[in-house]
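Sequence, please.
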């Protein structure tokens, strides 16, 4: 019965994607706890904005530079094992943060957190490319996007209220312990992870071939610009609203988590809509590039207005930005999954995500330096974040060519 087999495969794929989305949900809660507790942590550990920026940058340094080995390990050992090891590492680092007593100990744990979380997108991209039918790839990425975008919403809301009641140390302990529970269902899931012999038409694909693709570098530049804005918001918006706009911890948590929730719901809708549009004959290039461009235009307007406009206008623009960012989110990883395929998606995402996460090192740290240099003003940091959106438009629109599967066999045979 073909219909029955197809249904079983679809159900299995959705369960698998649901578990991976849950891992990304946990991932982004754990990485966002530092920003939610920034005012308490800075006061407790006597940190300047530059010191806080160094902690944030430490995470992204490990996260970015572990992308390439994460992609290679995903191809060699399989996405399931590598994701499980990464989840164990990031959960333990979150839990033990509750015991840390100084800057250096916290810095080491942020490095450990970055190493663990670096495997998330390479492993999930490989698993999606190998296990999810192409007609459902948009929905799969929408669910993944919903997971990692709703994570900050839940983490900021719960974390904000928990920290206000019990302090930041207890909150890290609780979140770290709960994160470990995800490993139980993950250890029991069954995943098809094809070896090179199973896909002779696509393998082996060399790293040199992947690096030679213009599409990789266009996507990497676009990813870089998008993450500059996103990580700046994740790292500094809670602190900005509390220290510059006078929000209480609870008020900040409510507003920021609501914005993140809108972002996540938009990503879920976009994944479903991308599948429908492509099924109806829309080109993947138009379907995926248009929302990416719109997100950068919205980011430009939001970042430039945030430090200067009345707070009501700023919050409205923040929500507009989060909606457009969510609508573009599934495209970030659909592009390498479509173009790279099962044989190259993990390593492609490793390179793209490494480049895309450089703002976590450069931007997050430099923002702290700019804030200290401006006497606590966030204006210059927001201005820089806004202007970086121009690079995103260049990457996604001008450099990235037509989005279509790469014929790696022809690429290998080229003189």
């Amino acid at each position: 019965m073909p219909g029955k087999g197809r249904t079983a495969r679809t159900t299995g794929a959705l369960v698998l994607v649901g578990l991976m989305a849950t891992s990304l949900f946990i991932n982004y809660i754990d990485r966002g706890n530092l920003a939610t507790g920034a005012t308490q942590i800075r006061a407790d550990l006597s940190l300047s904005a530059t010191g806080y920026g160094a902690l944030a940058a430490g995470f992204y340094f490990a996260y970015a530079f572990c992308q390439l080995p994460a992609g290679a390990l995903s191809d060699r050992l399989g996405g399931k094992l590598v994701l499980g090891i990464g989840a164990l590492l990031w959960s333990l680092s979150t839990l033990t943060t509750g015991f840390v007593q100084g800057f250096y100990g916290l810095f080491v744990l942020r490095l450990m957190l970055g190493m663990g979380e670096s495997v998330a997108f390479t492993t999930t991209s490989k698993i999606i490319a190998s296990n999810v039918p192409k007609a459902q790839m948009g929905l799969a990425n929408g669910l993944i996007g919903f997971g990692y975008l709703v994570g900050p919403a839940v983490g900021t809301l719960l974390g904000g209220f928990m920290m206000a009641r019990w302090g930041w140390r207890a909150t890290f302990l609780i979140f770290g312990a709960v994160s470990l529970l995800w490993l139980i269902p993950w250890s029991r899931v069954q995943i098809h992870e094809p070896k090179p012999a199973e896909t002779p038409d696509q393998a082996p694909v060399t790293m040199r071939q992947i690096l030679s693709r213009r599409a990789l570098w266009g996507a990497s530049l676009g990813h870089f610009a998008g993450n500059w804005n996103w990580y700046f918001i994740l790292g500094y918006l809670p602190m900005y609203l509390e220290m510059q706009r006078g929000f209480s911890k609870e008020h900040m948590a409510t507003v920021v988590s609501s914005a993140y929730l809108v972002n996540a719901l938009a990503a879920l809708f976009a994944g479903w809509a991308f599948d429908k549009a492509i099924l109806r004959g829309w080109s993947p290039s138009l379907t995926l590039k248009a929302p990416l461009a719109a997100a950068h235009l919205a980011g430009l307007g939001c970042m430039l207005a945030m430090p200067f406009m009345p707070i009501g206008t700023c919050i409205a623009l923040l929500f507009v930005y989060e909606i457009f960012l969510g609508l573009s989110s599934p495209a970030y990883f659909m592009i390498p999954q479509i173009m790279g395929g099962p044989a190259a998606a993990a390593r492609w995402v490793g390179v793209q995500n490494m480049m895309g996460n450089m703002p976590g090192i450069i931007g997050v740290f430099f923002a702290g330096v700019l804030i200290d240099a401006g006497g606590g003003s966030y204006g210059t940091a927001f201005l820089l974040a806004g202007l970086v959106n121009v690079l995103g438009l260049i990457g996604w629109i001008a450099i990235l060519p037509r989005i279509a599967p790469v014929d790696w066999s022809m690429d290998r045979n080229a003189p």
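The CA atoms of residues 335 and 397 lie 13 Å apart.
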